[in-house]
Design brief:
10 helices, eight-stranded parallel barrel, 16 strands, TIM Barrel, binds manganese (II) ion, four-stranded antiparallel beta sheet, 20% strand, alpha/beta
């Protein structure tokens, strides 16, 4: 197994690469979507939360990430002694009508195919995605972790409808043709949409030597903001795998989201899905939806060492990243929280 580090788009610079390396990372997972809308000082924000009306702000302009741009970033990552393992998430502006079954779906799925080919040519082995209408929404921030460390959690379900022009918790269109909200659909319709996505994209990913890796729902409720969710119980990951059997149909295995699910258990899920995991979000929580808190790795419900042993016994050899972590009281809340998580992970991994 390899220790990795996740970097948001505004962190793609030498200092952050060196910080990751100093924490012991050998690999990085990179977000190219800007959830922070170009804000520079985000050390106190840690992870995007947003609110109902703004979400995470504006999506991109629909253009693809070019080969030149990816190769330039890769060069800088490699210069810091790191490998680029994955890109995490497509920009909503690239595929909103694939998610929404809208009129531009066919053109956008071709764009995604081209993006996957470019990612393959850049030699990046994995692209993570989250097939979700509401996205990561409906969470709250507070002093929920040990010592009052700021973290994220959930206290009840957010039922505010999603405005037109927004999907995946970002705006792809600020002035949509129609005011109002996303039409209500059921789970069956969402599964039809993901089937189309997999049928079209997986063969291209196979050819490009890229794995598509699905993140489960965060938070894992059957509905958020009046939209159905896809993978909100551990068993639904199997349904996703069965829809398109391929070495490119894989999982971005988020331990926190899986532990938050109301059914199943995180150890059985790790055992079951280990052969299909592209990379792991290694984080801990207390509680389950609709009432849970993100906490430090060593104070949550999950026995993290037990997870590592299960992964090892199942020959998982991929990358683990901390995903999110509580923030610590100092001038660098995000950095200190991450450094704590990385040190803890490195120590656990050395005991395997
Ligand atoms: Mn995650």
């Amino acid at each position: 197994m390899k220790l990795g580090f996740g970097l948001y788009s505004h962190m793609l610079d030498k200092d952050h690469y060196q910080f990751a390396r100093q924490c012991g990372a050998t690999h990085v997972v990179v977000h190219l979507v800007d959830y922070f809308n170009n804000r520079q000082n985000t050390d106190t924000e840690g992870q995007p939360v947003g609110n109902e009306s703004m979400g995470w702000g504006n999506a991109g302009d629909g253009s693809l990430w070019s080969l030149e741009r990816l190769l330039q970033i890769k060069k800088e990552i490699n210069a810091a002694g790191l490998e680029w393992e994955a890109i995490e998430n497509f920009d909503p502006s690239m595929w909103y009508d694939v998610l929404l079954d809208g009129p531009d779906k066919k053109r956008q799925i071709e764009l995604l195919k081209e993006q996957v080919r470019i990612i393959g040519r850049a030699g990046i082995p994995v692209v993570g995605y989250n097939f979700s209408l509401a996205g990561v929404a409906g969470r709250i921030t507070g002093p929920f972790a040990r010592g009052g460390a700021m973290s994220v959690g959930m206290a009840g379900v957010d039922n505010a409808p999603v405005p037109n022009g927004m999907v995946w918790n970002m705006y792809y269109d600020r002035t949509p043709a129609q005011e109002g909200f996303l039409p209500l659909i059921e789970h069956e319709e969402l599964w039809k949409r993901v089937q189309y996505f997999l049928d079209e994209l997986i063969p291209v990913a196979e050819e490009a030597g890229v794995k598509l890796a699905a993140h489960p729902d965060d938070p894992p409720m059957p509905y958020i903001r009046q939209t159905p969710r896809l993978v909100y119980q551990p068993r639904l990951y199997q349904k996703l795998l069965d829809m398109k059997v391929s070495k490119s149909n894989t999982l971005e295995f988020c331990l926190g989201s899986i532990a938050e699910m109301q059914e199943g258990d995180v150890y059985a899920a790790t055992e079951q899905y280990a052969p299909h995991i592209a990379y792991v979000h290694f984080r801990n929580v207390k509680g389950k939806v609709p009432d849970y808190r993100e906490v430090f790795l060593d104070e949550g419900d999950i026995d993290m060492m037990k997870i590592l042993r299960i992964l090892k016994a199942n020959h998982f050899n991929g990358v683990l990243i901390p995903d999110h972590t509580p923030q610590m009281n100092c001038n660098a809340p995000w950095h200190s929280g991450m450094a704590y998580a990385m040190g803890y992970m490195k120590a656990l991994m050395s005991q395997l």
